[in-house]
Amino acid sequence: MQVSVETTSGLERRLTVGVPAEKVDSAVESKLQEAKKNIRLDGFRPGKVPMGEVKRRFGSAVRNEVLADVMREAFIEAVEQEKLQPAGMPGFEATTNEAGKDLEFVATFEVYPEVELAAFDGVAVEKPVAEVSDEDVDTMIETLRQQRAQFEEVDRAAAEGDRVNINYKGLKGDEAFEGGTAEGQNLELGSGQMIPGFEDGIVGMKAGEEKDINVTFPEEYHSEELKGQAVVFQIKVNKVEGKQLPEVDAEFMKGFGVDDGDEAKFKAEVRKNMERELKNAITGKVKEQVMEGLGELHQFDLPAALVGQEVQRMRQQMVQQFGGGQQFDASILPDDLFTEQAQRSVRLGLIIRAILDQNELKADADKVKARVEEIAEQYEKPEEVVNWVYGNPQQLQQIEGAVLEEQVVDLVLSSAKVEEKTMSYQDAVKPREQAEA
């Protein structure tokens, strides 16, 4: 088989392949003979149609079908011969395709880039150091009470933390604006759900009262017509409800798996969950910085085919997350919405692959087992979860992939510039963008 390779641009390759005529022609003949057995034509008994008639009627279609198979097989053989790693599907074009003549075709495709790993000491990481204090546990218990609060109607002026049911109508000048009117809307005062000044203006109002509130939309508001604009909201309070917090009693604790009402056990369970959350938050922040550092250290061309595939995957993921089960045309979401993140994902995937290959890393069985058991502990019947994971190859593969990423992070951290920073539990568990704001 004749093969020649040409670099057209960047990662794109043009592979010209010659396949002996007898290989193609014999495959076509074999396919026609097989088809002949099942062809039914008027005037002929089943399987007795003359080969000449079969070729006249079906020869072209059969040859095209054979051609696709031959080119695909020859392409696989050619890239192995030339030690090429295609990224994405190739495009085929037959340049010589006649019976009795050698087949020649051109395959155009991209290859994976060669990733030359930089020294990992170029990666800088700020590692949070924090502990869960008794005060943090008390704060968390108060948060849990807030989450399980009930609202009861009260006959008094509304205060921050209350829930009000309101009608409102927003006016810009003398005209109502789109999206500025509602009836029977529940609103928790102090939640920050509405624009600045709106909730504060309702504080002190009682059920049945009406009032005009003057507010200004923020400059960064999403509506071009309203950003920075002064408006008036006509408010009517229908109902005021006060927040009733549950007592930390046996019934409350039972909702968190402590059945005997032992407060010490309850606090220990809360602390255990907080420590797990803290550990995961620190691990996540460190990993995020490692990945950012690796991406900055390694700049190389990316296969457009891989980026395109990642864009499509992210688009479908967004449809599944926000489509609400409704029919949704994913094509209305432009590529630009995903391209930058897709490029980052593809780049990191290639870097991690290079690190794994060059360091011959395999998923550590003990770490995989520990991860599986850690996940299982969060369920009522841990043993069943462990057995399910190990009996589910796809699920196990996902966990092995996560463990491999951890091993890559550990390898990078062994050479990276790591600076520890002591902080509170609350700051440590905040997402980085919030902590840095």
TrEMBL record:
It holds the Pfam family Trigger_N. Its EC number is 5.2.1.8. GO terms for biological process: 'de novo' cotranslational protein folding; cell division; protein transport; protein unfolding. It comes from the Bacteria. It is an enzyme of class 5 (isomerase). One of its GO terms (molecular function) is peptidyl-prolyl cis-trans isomerase activity. Involved in protein export. Acts as a chaperone by maintaining the newly synthesized protein in an open conformation. Functions as a peptidyl-prolyl cis-trans isomerase. Keywords: Cell cycle, Cell division, Chaperone, Cytoplasm, Isomerase, Rotamase. It is found in: Cytoplasm. This is Trigger factor. It catalyses: [protein]-peptidylproline (omega=180) = [protein]-peptidylproline (omega=0). One of its GO terms (cellular component) is cytoplasm. NCBIfam families: tig. InterPro entries: PPIase_dom_sf, PPIase_FKBP_dom, Trig_fac, Trigger_fac_C, Trigger_fac_C_sf, Trigger_fac_ribosome-bd_bac, Trigger_fac_ribosome-bd_sf, Trigger_fact/SurA_dom_sf.
